[in-house]
Protein backbone atom coordinates (compact mmCIF):
# COMPACT_ATOMS: atom_id res chain seq x y z
CA UNK A 1 0.00 0.00 0.00
CA UNK A 2 1.30 3.44 -0.89
CA UNK A 3 1.34 6.07 1.81
CA UNK A 4 1.87 9.80 2.07
CA UNK A 5 2.35 11.51 5.43
CA UNK A 6 2.44 15.29 5.45
CA UNK A 7 4.44 16.96 8.24
CA UNK A 8 5.18 20.48 9.31
CA UNK A 9 8.87 21.35 9.72
CA UNK A 10 8.82 20.26 13.37
CA UNK A 11 7.57 16.76 12.56
CA UNK A 12 3.91 17.26 13.44
CA UNK A 13 1.56 15.15 11.30
CA UNK A 14 -0.76 17.36 9.26
CA UNK A 15 -2.35 14.77 6.97
CA UNK A 16 -2.16 11.09 6.04
CA UNK A 17 -3.16 9.80 2.61
CA UNK A 18 -3.43 6.11 1.79
CA UNK A 19 -5.47 6.26 -1.39
CA UNK A 20 -3.16 5.96 -4.40
CA UNK A 21 -5.16 8.35 -6.61
CA UNK A 22 -5.21 11.02 -3.89
CA UNK A 23 -1.46 10.68 -3.41
CA UNK A 24 -0.91 11.02 -7.18
CA UNK A 25 -3.03 14.20 -7.24
CA UNK A 26 -1.34 15.75 -4.19
CA UNK A 27 2.11 15.10 -5.65
CA UNK A 28 1.13 16.15 -9.16
CA UNK A 29 0.25 19.62 -7.82
CA UNK A 30 3.85 19.77 -6.57
CA UNK A 31 5.32 18.64 -9.93
CA UNK A 32 6.23 15.23 -8.49
CA UNK A 33 5.28 12.35 -10.77
CA UNK A 34 4.02 9.28 -8.91
CA UNK A 35 2.72 6.27 -10.81
CA UNK A 36 1.79 2.66 -10.21
CA UNK A 37 3.23 0.25 -12.76
CA UNK A 38 1.97 -3.28 -13.30
CA UNK A 39 4.26 -5.53 -11.25
CA UNK A 40 5.94 -8.37 -13.17
CA UNK A 41 6.67 -11.73 -11.68
CA UNK A 42 10.41 -11.95 -11.24
CA UNK A 43 12.47 -14.35 -9.17
CA UNK A 44 14.14 -12.84 -6.09
CA UNK A 45 17.57 -13.37 -7.63
CA UNK A 46 16.63 -11.80 -10.99
CA UNK A 47 19.63 -10.15 -12.63
CA UNK A 48 19.80 -6.47 -13.60
CA UNK A 49 19.35 -7.53 -17.21
CA UNK A 50 16.22 -9.58 -16.35
CA UNK A 51 14.69 -6.66 -14.46
CA UNK A 52 15.33 -4.16 -17.25
CA UNK A 53 14.00 -6.62 -19.82
CA UNK A 54 10.81 -7.24 -17.80
CA UNK A 55 10.06 -3.50 -17.62
CA UNK A 56 11.28 -2.70 -21.14
CA UNK A 57 7.95 -1.27 -22.34
CA UNK A 58 7.45 0.97 -19.31
CA UNK A 59 11.03 2.22 -19.52
CA UNK A 60 10.62 2.96 -23.23
CA UNK A 61 7.40 4.90 -22.62
CA UNK A 62 9.04 7.39 -20.23
CA UNK A 63 12.37 7.62 -22.07
CA UNK A 64 11.25 10.33 -24.48
CA UNK A 65 10.20 12.59 -21.61
CA UNK A 66 13.45 12.35 -19.65
CA UNK A 67 16.05 11.58 -22.31
CA UNK A 68 17.91 9.25 -19.98
CA UNK A 69 21.57 8.64 -20.59
CA UNK A 70 21.73 5.59 -18.36
CA UNK A 71 19.83 3.41 -15.96
CA UNK A 72 20.69 0.66 -13.53
CA UNK A 73 19.18 -1.52 -10.83
CA UNK A 74 20.09 -0.85 -7.20
CA UNK A 75 19.29 -3.49 -4.63
CA UNK A 76 19.91 -4.05 -0.96
CA UNK A 77 18.95 -6.74 1.53
CA UNK A 78 18.84 -6.65 5.36
CA UNK A 79 22.03 -8.74 5.55
CA UNK A 80 24.09 -6.23 3.56
CA UNK A 81 27.32 -5.59 5.55
CA UNK A 82 27.31 -1.86 4.74
CA UNK A 83 23.58 -1.26 5.21
CA UNK A 84 24.05 1.50 7.84
CA UNK A 85 26.62 3.29 5.73
CA UNK A 86 24.40 3.08 2.66
CA UNK A 87 21.36 4.24 4.61
CA UNK A 88 23.25 7.23 6.02
CA UNK A 89 24.45 8.35 2.58
CA UNK A 90 21.12 9.93 1.64
CA UNK A 91 19.55 10.44 5.07
CA UNK A 92 20.35 14.15 5.30
CA UNK A 93 18.56 16.75 3.21
CA UNK A 94 20.13 17.24 -0.22
CA UNK A 95 19.41 18.17 -3.81
CA UNK A 96 20.62 16.84 -7.17
CA UNK A 97 21.19 18.60 -10.45
CA UNK A 98 19.24 15.75 -12.10
CA UNK A 99 15.76 14.34 -11.57
CA UNK A 100 15.73 11.54 -9.01
CA UNK A 101 13.70 8.91 -10.81
CA UNK A 102 13.09 5.50 -9.29
CA UNK A 103 10.88 2.51 -9.92
CA UNK A 104 10.50 0.06 -7.03
CA UNK A 105 10.71 -3.45 -8.45
CA UNK A 106 10.56 -4.87 -4.94
CA UNK A 107 10.65 -3.84 -1.28
CA UNK A 108 10.16 -0.30 -0.02
CA UNK A 109 11.73 2.99 1.04
CA UNK A 110 10.60 6.51 1.95
CA UNK A 111 11.29 9.72 0.06
CA UNK A 112 10.95 12.92 2.06
CA UNK A 113 10.28 15.99 -0.05
CA UNK A 114 10.77 19.35 1.63
CA UNK A 115 8.56 21.78 -0.24
CA UNK A 116 7.93 25.26 1.10
CA UNK A 117 7.27 24.83 4.85
CA UNK A 118 6.11 21.21 4.67
CA UNK A 119 7.62 17.74 4.38
CA UNK A 120 5.91 15.10 2.24
CA UNK A 121 6.98 11.59 3.26
CA UNK A 122 6.15 9.25 0.40
CA UNK A 123 6.47 5.59 1.31
CA UNK A 124 7.23 3.85 -1.98
CA UNK A 125 6.71 0.15 -2.38
CA UNK A 126 6.84 -2.54 -5.06
CA UNK A 127 5.19 -1.16 -8.22
CA UNK A 128 5.66 2.55 -7.40
CA UNK A 129 7.39 4.96 -9.77
CA UNK A 130 8.46 8.34 -8.45
CA UNK A 131 10.15 11.28 -10.12
CA UNK A 132 11.53 14.08 -7.95
CA UNK A 133 12.47 17.17 -9.99
CA UNK A 134 16.05 18.46 -10.02
CA UNK A 135 17.00 20.79 -7.16
CA UNK A 136 14.13 19.65 -4.90
CA UNK A 137 15.35 19.43 -1.26
CA UNK A 138 14.74 15.85 -0.16
CA UNK A 139 16.17 12.81 1.58
CA UNK A 140 15.62 9.07 1.37
CA UNK A 141 15.35 6.53 4.16
CA UNK A 142 15.59 2.81 3.43
CA UNK A 143 15.21 1.88 7.12
CA UNK A 144 17.47 0.03 9.57
CA UNK A 145 16.96 -3.28 7.79
CA UNK A 146 16.69 -2.20 4.17
CA UNK A 147 15.11 -4.36 1.55
CA UNK A 148 14.42 -3.04 -1.91
CA UNK A 149 15.28 -3.35 -5.56
CA UNK A 150 14.83 -0.25 -7.71
CA UNK A 151 15.52 0.87 -11.25
CA UNK A 152 17.38 4.19 -11.21
CA UNK A 153 17.20 6.49 -14.21
CA UNK A 154 19.81 9.15 -14.94
CA UNK A 155 19.48 11.94 -17.49
CA UNK A 156 22.86 13.58 -16.91
CA UNK A 157 26.20 11.97 -15.99
CA UNK A 158 26.93 12.34 -12.26
CA UNK A 159 23.36 13.59 -11.78
CA UNK A 160 22.99 11.37 -8.70
CA UNK A 161 25.65 13.30 -6.74
CA UNK A 162 24.08 14.73 -3.58
CA UNK A 163 24.49 18.42 -2.74
CA UNK A 164 23.78 18.60 0.99
CA UNK A 165 21.79 21.63 2.16
CA UNK A 166 23.25 21.55 5.68
CA UNK A 167 19.75 21.43 7.19
CA UNK A 168 19.06 19.08 10.13
CA UNK A 169 15.36 18.81 9.32
CA UNK A 170 15.59 15.08 8.60
CA UNK A 171 16.31 14.53 12.31
CA UNK A 172 12.99 16.15 13.27
CA UNK A 173 10.80 14.02 11.03
CA UNK A 174 9.95 10.37 11.89
CA UNK A 175 12.13 7.90 10.01
CA UNK A 176 10.99 5.20 7.58
CA UNK A 177 10.72 2.50 10.26
CA UNK A 178 8.58 4.73 12.52
CA UNK A 179 6.26 5.64 9.67
CA UNK A 180 5.85 2.03 8.60
CA UNK A 181 5.14 0.85 12.15
CA UNK A 182 2.66 3.70 12.77
CA UNK A 183 0.66 3.56 9.56
CA UNK A 184 1.18 0.32 7.65
FE1 LIG B 1 18.49 12.09 -3.55
TrEMBL record:
Coiled coil regions, renumbered to chain: none
State one Pfam family annotation: ARD
Q: Keyword Ribonucleoprotein: yes or no?
A: no
Site entry: Important to generate the dianion = 102
**Which residues does the annotation list for site: May play a role in metal incorporation in vivo?**
93
GO MF annotation terms: acireductone dioxygenase (Ni2+-requiring) activity; acireductone dioxygenase [iron(II)-requiring] activity; iron ion binding; nickel cation binding
Keywords tagged on the record: Amino-acid biosynthesis, Dioxygenase, Iron, Metal-binding, Methionine biosynthesis, Nickel, Oxidoreductase
Share an example GO biological-process annotation for this protein. L-methionine salvage from methylthioadenosine
What quaternary arrangement does the UniProt entry report?
Answer: Monomer.
Q: What is this protein called?
A: Acireductone dioxygenase
Taxonomic lineage is: Bacteria, Pseudomonadati, Aquificota, Aquificia, Aquificales
Q: Which gene encodes it?
A: mtnD
Amino acid sequence: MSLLVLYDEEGKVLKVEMDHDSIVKTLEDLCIIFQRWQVKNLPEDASEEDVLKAYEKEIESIKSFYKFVSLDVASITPDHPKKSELRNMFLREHTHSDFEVRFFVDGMGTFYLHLRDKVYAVVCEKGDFISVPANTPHWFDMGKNPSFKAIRFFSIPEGWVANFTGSDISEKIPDHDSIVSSWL
